[in-house]
Each structure stands twice: as structure tokens, then as C-alpha cells.
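Need C-alpha cells for this chain, all 92 residues.
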Amino acid sequence: MGLEGVTAVVVVGDKDGTLHLSGRSRDDRVHMGRALDAAVGDLPNASAGGHARMGGGRVPPAVQADGTREVTAPRGEELESRLFDAMDGEIQ
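Here are the C-alpha cells for all 92 residues:
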């Protein structure tokens, strides 16, 4: 579905504590692979990247010494802010 003025989109999902990201862009100013990497690249165990028009990433939970998993990825407004800042080029 096309929405007027929307040129880039990121979909986020959570499965068993792992945050999955998938992004697409039609805007030449937004390199989606770099934007996703910038948004989550500083998080423990995170990986993201891709191409100018599409990218993806994941942030798994941290595994503690006792085998428990601790969800470390930002959620909600914090994640939204990271994604918008990265797509605006404010973080690299």
C-alpha cells in the first residue's frame, strides 16, 4: 500500500526475546543498511546491514553465565527514536 509522503519503512518484530528488523527505502537520502546498522550497531550482540534500498538486523538477548537470557534491545519510544535518528543521518 502506498502512503503519500512515506519513502522509508522499518518493521520490527520480537521472537523469543530476539528483536528482528527489516527496512525498505525508496529515498536516495536513506541508505537502509547503514541506517539500521547505526540504529543498533552499538548494542551487545546486535548485527544489521544491507543495501541502499533494503536492510535487516537482529538483536538477540544477552545470555547470562547461569544460562538465563536477558532482553537488552531497546523497545518502544527508545527504539523508535534510534531508528528515526539513524534514517535522518543524526547517528552514524
